[in-house]
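Any chance you'd type out a single protein's sequence alongside its tokenized fold?
>
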Amino acid sequence: MTAGVVGAGLMGAEIALVFALAGHDVLLHDRSAEALDRAIERLRGVLDKGVVRGSHAREAADAALARIAPVTSLDAMRGCTIVTEAVYESLEAKGDVLRALDRICAPSCIFATNTSTLPISSLAALLTPARRAQFLGTHYFSPVSRMPLVEVISGFATDPAIAEQVTMRMRGIGKQPVHVRDVAGFAVNRMLHALLIEAVKLVEEGVATPADLDTACRLGLGHPIGPFAMMDVVTSDLCLQVQEILHDAYGERFRPPALLKQRVAAGLGGGRGRPGWIDRDTGHEGSAG
């Protein structure tokens, strides 16, 4: 099987990696050759951190990386069995990719989207009617190389046999799939962002600091990472974007807090090379905002 992944960002590159680690040839697409070079270099770093274990871990890691072929043309996806779209969380951006793939790929090719919030049936409507039965959501979690969960979401037109086939493929690449109904935000993001919104409100109200709330969630709730450390990893910018989508879908309960908006506007969104809620060197708060 040849798997395709469109979008060589943090999520897309690691989705390509987990398919490659499971022994599949993978085509990783981005419009920019420089972005592809950065993605491959980032994956080398991921593998160097010990994602693969065992006596032949180095050989297995090198073999997996060799199975990933960077490509800058979507035409390369023509022979893929399954293609995962993992581009920017925008209906327009995802629609452009899906429509292009619809013209290029064989009728039997399965399309999956890694959207975290957009309804699958809304994206399916951008495809030709014949393709919609082959389309569904596979929502991975960051970092994909270490997080086993995948939400599998069928749209109105998804063939149940395709959903079952993809569920088995997810297990085959070492993931634990859960089936979720097609609603905005699916299941995990709705639970997560309810927590993130309340956490930011607690800071706004002066109830506790980000560092202490992270400690409370880790030690009191058993979470492996606190909400503010998580926002720094995935970026507050993305969290704000997701909350705006959820707010449009569900109303006031998902209204983004003013403090989150202010910090994003001030460039305090976290991520690579930017300050966030927690100073990564000290573990204490960054700029208060």
